[in-house]
């Protein structure tokens, strides 16, 4: 295998995401960071507060995953009703394909968790606005994406979605998605439909379940060009991978820090469609928490990470800056440290409480945190 391919494969391993995050955490603890220091006592304080909140709100001590579907049900019940009606005539596999399509569409239109137009997006999808064959049910395919990107007047696009499509970020992501779907007919079919991927995952090979890493590997070629990083390996876009001088390695992955935030978020959002298709996704404990700008802000607000200079809060930072890369890595490693402490407090195993289950409770705790003045950060662009 060429050296570039070996490097790409290594940087897409979930253990490498976690390894590099902990590497930067260790560097900060050694005082090597120019930008941040840590508050070790805050980990125990926040973990105890999280344990208390989980005991009060979740009798089985298994917080729900912070995925698309609970957000839709909570904030956009009318959109859920439209979606349910639109797939009512489909079999389980058809509903699964539609669920996968909707999950990807929502993630690329609002990757940072913002869902102000999620209801309008559900309306567009349920009405068949993102497919060229609406009579077959709601879907997301390449020609359908091309139609709405071109402003086809035959498609009724809600005002909120039209406004979002005028933003270069969502527009470029959908254009990259359409191109990726078209370029891989073996996976997505002749019409470039994302949900067709689920058909490829069904079979005897998945009798014992599909691993999170295996699914991430299948999704990476499609989503890597969407991630927005400028890092290239062997001439190709590497995905959500960024440079930081404190990330050491003895090969070509030196100074490269992978996050794969969109990929990991999509794996979680696909859990319900996969279940509908009869596919079990196992070993989700391998996933790290998706290193979103929201999670980074929560770490600052909770006092788990503290800036060493005023420029962190005063300036707007591009996603490839050392400050942003470092903070995202710290967010992953500190979430691992928090969940380790939580498992001890709640007497749970890694499988009982994988790190991804604390994203929702952590965000809720941060929103209500009043113990100290909150630090903040503004991050420009970037699909995370």
Describe, in plain words, how this protein is organized in 3D.
The structure is a single chain. The protein is mainly α. It has one domain. The chain is built from 19 helices and ten strands. It has a two-stranded antiparallel sheet. It has a two-stranded parallel sheet with strand order 2-7. Strands 3-4 form a two-stranded antiparallel sheet. The longest helix is centred in the last third of the chain and has 25 residues, at 322-346.
Structural class: mainly alpha
Q: H/E order of the elements? A: HHEHHHHHHHHHHEHEEEEHHEHEHEHHE
Most strands sheet:
2 strands, antiparallel
Residue fraction in strands: 5-15%
**How many distinct folded domains?**
1
Helix content: 40-55%
Q: Detail the poorly predicted runs.
A: none
What is the overall shape?
Answer: globular
Separate helix tally: 19
What is the C-alpha radius of gyration, as a whole number of Å?
21 Å
Strand ordering within the main sheet? 1-8
First-residue to last-residue Cα separation: 31 Å
Number of strand segments: 10
Question: If you average the pLDDT, what whole number results?
Answer: 91
Summed up, what is this model?
It contains 19 helices and 10 strands. The protein is mainly α. The model has no long low-confidence stretch (mean pLDDT 91).
């Amino acid at each position: 295998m060429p050296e570039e391919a070996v490097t790409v494969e290594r940087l897409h391993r979930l253990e490498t995401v976690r390894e590099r995050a902990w590497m930067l955490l260790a560097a900060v603890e050694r005082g090597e960071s120019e930008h941040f220091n840590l508050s070790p006592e805050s980990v125990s304080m926040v973990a105890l507060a999280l344990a208390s909140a989980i005991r009060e709100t979740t009798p089985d001590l298994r917080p729900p995953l912070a995925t698309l579907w609970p957000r839709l049900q909570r904030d956009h019940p009318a959109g859920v009703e439209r979606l349910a009606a639109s797939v009512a005539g489909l079999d389980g596999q058809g509903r699964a394909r539609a669920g996968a399509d909707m999950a990807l569409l929502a993630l690329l239109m609002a990757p940072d968790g913002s869902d102000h137009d999620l209801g309008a997006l559900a309306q567009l999808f349920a009405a068949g606005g993102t497919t060229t064959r609406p009579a077959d049910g709601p879907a997301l395919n390449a020609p359908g994406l091309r139609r709405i990107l071109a402003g086809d007047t035959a498609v009724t696009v809600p005002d909120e979605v039209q406004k979002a499509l005028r933003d270069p970020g969502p527009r470029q992501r959908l254009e990259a998605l359409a191109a990726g779907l078209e370029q891989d007919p073996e996976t997505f079919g002749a019409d470039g439909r994302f949900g067709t991927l689920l058909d490829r995952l069904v079979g005897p090979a998945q009798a014992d379940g599909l691993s999170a890493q295996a699914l991430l590997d299948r999704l990476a070629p499609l989503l890597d060009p969407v991630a927005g990083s400028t890092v290239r390996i062997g001439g190709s876009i590497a995905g959500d991978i960024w440079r930081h001088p404190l990330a050491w390695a003895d090969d070509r992955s030196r100074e490269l820090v992978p996050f794969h935030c969109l990929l990991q978020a999509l794996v979680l959002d696909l859990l319900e469609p996969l279940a509908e298709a009869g596919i079990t996704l196992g070993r989700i404990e391998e996933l790290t928490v998706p290193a979103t700008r929201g999670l980074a802000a929560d770490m600052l607000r909770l006092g788990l990470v503290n800036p060493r200079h005023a420029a962190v809060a005063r300036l707007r930072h591009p996603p490839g800056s050392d400050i942003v890369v470092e903070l995202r890595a710290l967010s992953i490693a500190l979430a691992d440290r928090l969940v380790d402490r939580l498992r001890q407090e709640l007497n749970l195993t890694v499988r009982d409480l994988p790190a991804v289950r604390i994203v929702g409770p952590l965000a809720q705790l941060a929103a209500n945190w009043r113990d100290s003045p909150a630090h903040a950060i503004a991050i420009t662009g970037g699909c995370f």
